[in-house]
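Check my protein:
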Amino acid sequence: MAAKYSVKFFWIIKVMVYVFKILGLATFSVENFDNSICTWAVDSSNLGLAYNILLSIALSILTAVSFWKSVSMNYDNKSSLTAIHDAVLGLSVSCTAWVVIVSWAFKQSKAVDIANKMLLLNFYVTSKKERSKKRTFVTVCLYVTINACFWIYEYIQEIFRPTVPTLVFIYFTVPYFIVSSFMVEYCMVVRLIIKEFEKVNEILSDYDDFRTNLYPRTQFLNYSNLEAFFSPNNSQLIMLQSVHKIRTMLFEISSDISDFFSFPILLCIGTSFYAILTHVYYLITPFVAPNAVFSLPLFLSTVLLIIVIAYPIVLLVYNTEQAMYKAKLSSRVVHELLSKTTKPEIKSELTEFSLRILHEELNFTAYGFFRLDFTLLHSMLAALVTYLVILVQYSG
């Protein structure tokens, strides 16, 4: 099923897709069927698959060439412990980026299926609140822009004040830029899911009184035959059943998204945590290690790098928490509607809807190891302090 959007919106989306394509994070192609009102859909691309395979090979070559240079390079406050950190961090970031690229290559069909389902869902339910649409679009663009600006600043800073050999700098930053962009991409997709849950909740909230023949103010298309039913002949029960089906479809899409990103995001978060731990240790080394040299520019640069690494994790946790909250909010709205209606057929449908929501608990996890919510940040902070104490004692 294709979706209709303005030409301007279509080309903005296409540019963003090509940016992610360069990083190996969008192997599919976007097809346009009409030039006036863009009717478009997502399709598999053999060229994207081949590009990702070549990119993974190039990343492997970069790792093989740069690894020993990264281990043998000299810098202030270097020790055997920091040398081990450099080796482990470099390999873990490269391996994580490699897994992300390969995952996108061989799970392309699943990504295409998810993308087309989201387009289809957006075609079924379209909010009339244009400001809300624009706000969502601006938000996802900001996610990408902020992440890109962080890394552009890092590259500019290295150009004007080099601290490590160029090849080593590329070895550490390019793979991690892919990793952070992958997490930001996940944030963007979850943000779109949040918007869809808000639409469903908006439709349900518009049922103020079942004793009247009021219909939702949101433009709503029939799930089964795609016919808009704003006419008085269409019953509230049919509309409620259609909302029920769309809410179920939205939950299934959300679960597919969680499964698609699940294993790579586990590696991304693990690598990010180790990178933060390593750089925080570098940060405090001048204050805890004997004969260590303190440099203010290096200190500030390290603080900024920690922020750059932590940014996509915090962003991802915030968005998944919001998505889970919006999904649970549907249950509250349905319960409120149950207390308002006296019609047996409406009450029966709402009861079934409520039971379905009760069994459809939305969770975003990292391959089942932990949930992507605010408790993850608490756990990471506690683990960070624990490991820092161990590292400081070991260095002492």
Residues 213-219, 221-234 have pLDDT under 50 and may be disordered. Residues 76-395 form one domain.
